[in-house]
């Protein structure tokens, strides 16, 4: 019996360090970052249909052609020359516009899921290229869904990936203060406050070492912290609660804290009663 429906676990990511290398001639920026998939996830359900539909459990998710999932569907149609009629439902858990890659992960889920469901037979290279055309973070999630791994060094816009083994056991606390930060704005203004960053004053010891040297600093933090002190306050609170590492993810506004695997951190959510917070692990 042919499969008519499938579900994709659409995981979030955090950036363990993000260095902005330079502004490119095309207006984008070259970066260096480490993407790492984490356990909080949406569910993308795809079902064959006689027309295209998109729904979500969240009313603030756009369901028109401007949604990345519909863009992914149209990209697949363009490259295959086929009409792909599917009903897509996004069951959202990942906060929207939070620096966790939720939308990019959903888009990757549609690319990989429709390739399987409709037997499009697109190779991995093509799926990665389609992902890059949708967004800088999408290729990481494409690779994760294709079984390349859950950790990657990202360069270029973030689409040039080297998947690596870096198994971490730390517990993760995510805190999102419901502040929307425009990524274009962050790229346009990050240099203004970059020199104000203080040098880290403590050694970071995680449960596994990286196979290469890499800074865990995020170049967006000085700008975002100066304009949105609540984000900096979250990081300070997590550090005061003995987080092994605390940083903002991407351009924000989510802040993560990594804690020893045996630590009891469920109570920390009580310190942020008006924010979104959750405890998870690395994938």
What is the count of structural domains? 2
CATH architecture of the largest domain: 2-Layer Sandwich
Indicate the CATH topology of the largest domain: Ribosomal Protein S5, domain 2
Determine the strand fraction and express it as a percent band.
Answer: 25-35%
Total of helices: 7
How would a crystallographer describe the biggest sheet? 6 strands, mixed
Strand/helix succession: EEEHEHHHEEEHHHEEE
Average pLDDT level: 94
The amount of helix comes to: 25-40%
Which CATH class of the largest domain is shown? Alpha Beta
Strand segment count: 10
Q: Which structural class best describes the helix and strand composition?
A: alpha+beta
Q: How would you summarize the topology of this molecule?
A:
Layout: E1 5-23, E2 29-48, E3 53-56, H1 68-80, E4 86-91, H2 102-117, H3 124-134, H4 138-145, E5 151-155, E6 160-163, E7 171-176, H5 183-189, H6 221-227, H7 229-240, E8 245-248, E9 255-259, E10 276-280
Parallel strand pairs: 3-4
Antiparallel strand pairs: 1-2, 2-4, 2-5, 5-6, 7-9, 7-10, 8-9
Helix pairs in contact: 1-2, 2-3, 2-4, 3-4, 6-7
């Amino acid at each position: 019996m042919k499969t008519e429906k499938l579900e994709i676990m659409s995981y979030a990511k955090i950036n363990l360090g993000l260095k902005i290398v330079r502004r490119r001639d095309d207006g984008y920026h070259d970066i260096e970052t480490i993407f790492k998939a984490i356990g909080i996830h949406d569910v993308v359900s795809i079902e064959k249909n006689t027309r295209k539909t998109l729904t979500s459990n969240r009313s603030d998710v756009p369901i028109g052609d401007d949604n990345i999932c519909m863009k992914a569907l149209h990209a697949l149609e363009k490259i295959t020359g086929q009409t792909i009629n599917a009903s897509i439902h996004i069951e959202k858990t990942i906060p929207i516009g939070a620096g966790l890659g939720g939308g990019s992960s959903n888009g990757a889920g549609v690319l990989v899921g429709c390739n399987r469901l409709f037997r499009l037979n697109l190779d991995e290279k093509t799926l990665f290229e389609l992902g890059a055309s949708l967004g800088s973070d999408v290729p990481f999630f494409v690779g994760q869904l294709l079984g390349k791994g859950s950790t990657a060094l990202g360069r270029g816009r973030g689409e040039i990936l080297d998947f690596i083994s870096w198994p971490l056991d730390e517990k993760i606390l995510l805190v999102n203060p419901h502040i929307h930060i425009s990524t274009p704005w962050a790229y346009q203004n990050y240099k203004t406050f970059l020199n104000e960053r203080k040098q880290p004053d403590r050694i970071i010891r995680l449960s596994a070492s990286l196979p290469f040297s890499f800074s865990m600093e995020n170049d967006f933090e000085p700008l975002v912290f100066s304009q949105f002190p609540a984000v900096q306050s979250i990081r300070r609170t997590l550090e005061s609660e003995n987080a092994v590492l605390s940083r903002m993810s991407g351009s924000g506004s989510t802040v993560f804290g990594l804690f020893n695997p045996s630590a009891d951190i469920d109570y920390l959510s009580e310190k942020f009663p008006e924010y979104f917070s959750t405890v998870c692990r690395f994938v």
